[in-house]
């Protein structure tokens, strides 16, 4: 009797998560790239641009806990799919706002960015939840790194496209493009995303591989009981663990770096390095590509360390702390007079940040069963408070000093804080079991 061939549906799943995550980050960064050519009447200086970034970041952070509860209650496919539709509509509305008077356009875009932030809030809790369900522990490092690396690949993939579109058709074309792409991805999402055991193309052998390896295959099962995790008791319980608090603090710092790279880096190239819109698109692609490579490499290194017998704590912490050490190199850009040298140090910093961005892997490793969405949401809430603080800190630094040097020093200090958090606070990394008496 010929043994049934094992399917590989989980690799299709992570591919879709990567593509959708790239799309999400492209939407977040498009405004920064378009800002320099938007109407002068909008007066998009560093401070006013900071307000638009703040609008998205505040709403994105605010939406984390509700999105985590909704994901656990109604499932990843439904909640995540509605989110894609929602932020695609917001992209269309941003383009329409361009036809308003300049002052009205700024207000309209501010409001739309709030809704876009709310709609995008389920993306990464949903990613973490789907990876915890679809992948065994030994594969989570690289798979979480793949979807997390979208923040880096989004720049080299979309920045040249946006630069070209802006050059030939104006800034609104970026948002028309995002809206149309969102419609396509919505169809792809609903056609391919299911719970592990409900997927029409998965083999019993693959289900067994995932479940035997520690995958939470019943997470989105139609027959599993769905409980309401959106309670203050759940939040208080999660916050009572030092390990999780250390991971949350680390993610806040890592996300601060992410927000700089996604939103302020294109402005840094245009304003501090005096590059044209077209050059910014291609220049931003180089460090972004390095960050993406580092992101994949960090996950591979972590899984290899785990497979060679090292503890889960060692396998996750070493790439995180070493990567953040490299990220500190961003401060060398202040002393680089040539564009090439600046891009080298910025690329090195992106690369290190990519290696160290394994927080979502840790969430998949540590979340109590039935609370993956809520733990991921709380983790992402702490992380994306950086979406509020980063523009409010960097904007005034740039305005008052007329330089980005202080901003780069700030980013280097934040990278060092990640090392302190994982080195001094986190302790042993392990899955929490709230049903166990020892969990308290």
Automatic annotation (TrEMBL):
The keyword Cell membrane applies. One of its GO terms (cellular component) is plasma membrane. It is found in: Cell membrane. The chain crosses the membrane at residues 50-67, 79-99, 145-169, 175-193, 243-262, 282-306, 318-337, 343-363, 375-398, 404-425. Pfam families: MFS_1. It is a multi-pass membrane protein. It comes from the Bacteria. Keywords: Cell membrane, Membrane, Transmembrane, Transmembrane helix. One of its GO terms (molecular function) is transmembrane transporter activity. Residues 13-430 form the Major facilitator superfamily (MFS) profile domain. This is Putative D-glucarate transporter. It comes from Candidatus Sulfuritelmatomonas gaucii.
